[in-house]
Amino acid sequence: MEKAKFISEQNIKFLLHDVFNIESLTSSDYYGQHNRKLFDMVLDETLKLAKDLMWPILEEMDQNTPILENGEVKVNPAVREIMRQCGEGGWISAGFPEEYNGDQLPVLFVSACRFIFWASNYSAGTFPDLTAGAARLISSFGDQNLVDSYLPNMLAGKWQGTMALTEPQAGSSLADIAATAKSTDKGYYHLSGNKIFISAGDHNGVDNVVHLMLARMEGAPGGVKGISLFVVPKLRPEESGQLVSNDVVVSQIFHKLGYRGCPITELSIGEQGDCRGFLIGEANKGLFYMFQMMNEARIGVGLGATAIASAAYYASLDYVKQRTQGRNASHKNPDLPQVPLIEHADVKRMLLFQKSVVEGSLSLLMQASLYADLEIIAPNEEKEKYSLLLDILTPVAKTYPSEMGILSVSQGLQCLGGYGYCKDFSLEQYYRDARIHPIHEGTTGIQGQDLLGRKVLMQNGKAFDLLINEIKDTIKRAMSLNQLNGYAFKLTQSVDILYEVTDSLIAIQAEKGTESFLADAVLYLELFSIITIAWQWLKQAISACKSLDSCKSKSAILFYEGKLSTARYFFHYELPKIYGLKMSILDSGDVTLDIDPDAFK
Amino acid sequence: MEKAKFISEQNIKFLLHDVFNIESLTSSDYYGQHNRKLFDMVLDETLKLAKDLMWPILEEMDQNTPILENGEVKVNPAVREIMRQCGEGGWISAGFPEEYNGDQLPVLFVSACRFIFWASNYSAGTFPDLTAGAARLISSFGDQNLVDSYLPNMLAGKWQGTMALTEPQAGSSLADIAATAKSTDKGYYHLSGNKIFISAGDHNGVDNVVHLMLARMEGAPGGVKGISLFVVPKLRPEESGQLVSNDVVVSQIFHKLGYRGCPITELSIGEQGDCRGFLIGEANKGLFYMFQMMNEARIGVGLGATAIASAAYYASLDYVKQRTQGRNASHKNPDLPQVPLIEHADVKRMLLFQKSVVEGSLSLLMQASLYADLEIIAPNEEKEKYSLLLDILTPVAKTYPSEMGILSVSQGLQCLGGYGYCKDFSLEQYYRDARIHPIHEGTTGIQGQDLLGRKVLMQNGKAFDLLINEIKDTIKRAMSLNQLNGYAFKLTQSVDILYEVTDSLIAIQAEKGTESFLADAVLYLELFSIITIAWQWLKQAISACKSLDSCKSKSAILFYEGKLSTARYFFHYELPKIYGLKMSILDSGDVTLDIDPDAFK
Fold this sequence. Notes:
The first copy, chain A, is an alpha+beta fold. Chain A is 56% helix and 11% strand. A five-stranded mixed beta barrel of chain A has the order 4-5-12-7-6. In chain A, strands 1-2 form a two-stranded antiparallel sheet. The model of chain A has no long low-confidence stretch (mean pLDDT 96).
């Protein structure tokens, strides 16, 4: 039986307080009602709920997957209890303003809670999380009628929220969305079409499902400029308060590699001509609205990926501390007892890799969350700065944890040897669960295009410059610490490389056009990400150094020394990867553009 | 329904004939009875068996896994037919000398057959393959009595062979094997102990199972020097020819992430005190003997990993040619039709990555196989050369395909987006199946220690020098081709880096000792492997260039141009990774050695 250890509370508190100083947010009007004691209390409650309710059914939800029976999707009975407790306990509404009865907690703090739930059980944590995202979209752009009709039940965990974008003929290509919306003179639209891969698109753990659905009005412009956003409930509330069927039918559920506790559905909409959708905001601006939820979901994917990698890390750590095997390279005498696996340098390397990915990713996600908070509380003239910083970090915060999370879980599995491959331990499930993340909410390829083709260039590189300034601020602080100025110097060199590569790519765009410019966008994203994570490790190292100065408890000293060792690992083992990436990007030989598709066979 | 396309016959023939010139082997006495016509015929038959018998049950064997019922392991009924056909058709004995009724086919050719079977269905191909390996061990080191008692039924596919090393308390640490063998005065030993993770350790697709088992005689020295090798049948043949139970009991089968069609078992040996084992060769030399089978199995792991990656590559290629999605970066007009995924540069990059891993790995495995053949046919004074070359390449040929195969399959899955994550396509199974390879037959960590700690140093670096000479020969040939001399130059630089890193590590050993020397052995293995694969790509590029000169058929021209593009991809996108690896190894900061195990929590 594995221990219910899937996150480090000490690490979460270190990030919230030491690195990102969450209490400074409480000097604002908006977050003024909170304080450390309250944060600690809610964190305790979150951990308790995760441990008691979600973690115990991790394996069960993987084994007994949702089934579609007589048009109804049946999920694990615990889902209803999870939704109820997350609703009543205020987790779904945690980040909502007080006007919606939310706790108006900082995004930074809400991210920590999302991370904890997902680390305990990724599928379980997704039901309330999707609901919160959909509710926020309605609250941001929906009219008062929509807010009144849907928010209370969603925030209470009684109704599920979803994000219904994808269609069979248009996966990543949102321009090709074909679901239609015909206007009526009754204040609603008739929706029809098909949606696939809709997470929690229907299930019996709630009383209703509320889809946030993209569709195209008659006569709308082609492409993404003709997409509108609708609220499409499974059961529509009549004026009487009664719920009646809204002609949204689950035509199949997908059977998947992992993430099996959450039903991923195909929906047929309006087959009987009686599906009503309610427009959110203005016509043809649907994609703009949807991107609020999408960006939150992308940060969510990063958090979910980091969460699974965190759980895998602690599972592998637990194993290698207990399991003895072999002897150190310099003490091969077979008469000596075997040593715990953790004594081997190569095992420690695999642990450091995991720790550097997990804690580096979480730090970046907290950084992005803090920018979201600062955008909220900053005076108007400074809001754009934080908005741009969040924008440029979003593809990185989605992708680095997703891509590296897979490798991190894989190293966790490797620590267990043959047992890692067996169902006796949770690593094999984590390995399957984690693989979804580079795919959903925009594949890694899409994120690369977003970063290089949009975010780096926008407003003449303003977001890029702002981010570099933030990194340079950290470098400056590290320069004054003897222990860290070597790393500050390495990061300075890395930033120079980022400039060099970015400038070269922009020159390529001018010279050879967009295809050449974007051909290696994924490699650029990788290089950009590694430097960004190095920045986060330098930040953490600064906080650790400062805390070590005044620290007396042995366990705290070990914690901070662990931080410094992991920063050291990152700078020595991960950061050097940018040198190969730079060479590839600057000298790609255009091979991916030139090759004839028929030459692959 | 996916096409039965899991390998490229054209590529196999290109490697056998153009690159490695298999026909030159037939000028030897040993292989003199063969010719191209025969090779082509057997290859056809192999493909037919793979397509008709193994491929159709790929998914079925994954879904309906072996079960343990009343002490008997039940596998898919097709396993019996597979063993029968592989036995009667001569595949199990294909590489055996004619004195055992084998076809005495070159290792190079047998490797191609192993690759084909595994690509069609990894679990299915393992049953006959393990049997061949065990039979070869008996034929090499067993006495005539053992040969007569076991070989005919094994080579006929009636009896399964296994490799029984691993024990619960001694996974990778063979020095700690504890199974015991008590001598009797009747020519056999009483065996007792426990073995775990024994592939095909029992099943009802054969009439008997023959374990090649490591155990320790009473009073034997500690560690690996006290291990002996025994034949331990499930049912022992009495003099009368009758088979009687030999007290080998399956205590459990393991439930696994993938590779599910093959039962991986735990065995209890001699619980009733009636398990007889028959010594192979001399006492206490068991590990030496076992390593014959183990080395063959390590090449087999490389082939199996490459095979799964090959099947995944063709499945993803098939998908991206048919599936339309989005438009090219420079033609975003939504009124234009969507283009096939293969038109996108990033998709072509993912395909090139897969192709470079699959065909680069297969080329290396063929190279290793050729050295095995040359060792057989070379005059005595040259045998050692080829033996050393095979020795130093074995950890690379095991590990590079295993580690990169996982990433390659993962990119194949990514090409399908959400569908890649679903059971509607085979990619998710390949993703699970492939994950075994960095674990079994010596983990990647063990292979790193083997390469750097043993193979690079042995005989004062003789194997290392021989390999570098082989690489330099290829460089010299490439230098004379205009199209390739740029790559020849890059490979020369890479070899210089390999020298520099190797020399530095040897200096570290002298200065700081073995722990420091071996701490980054896995990174060294990765660097070594990338250079080795670059060498293989240069070899393939030379052959492609030469063939292109005289080539008229359009499909052949596309094939050779595909080879050149993939070589180009490898030199531009994969080879540069050695620069980061070099920096990490030379400047590791000893972080993995220094960190306190308690600092991980």
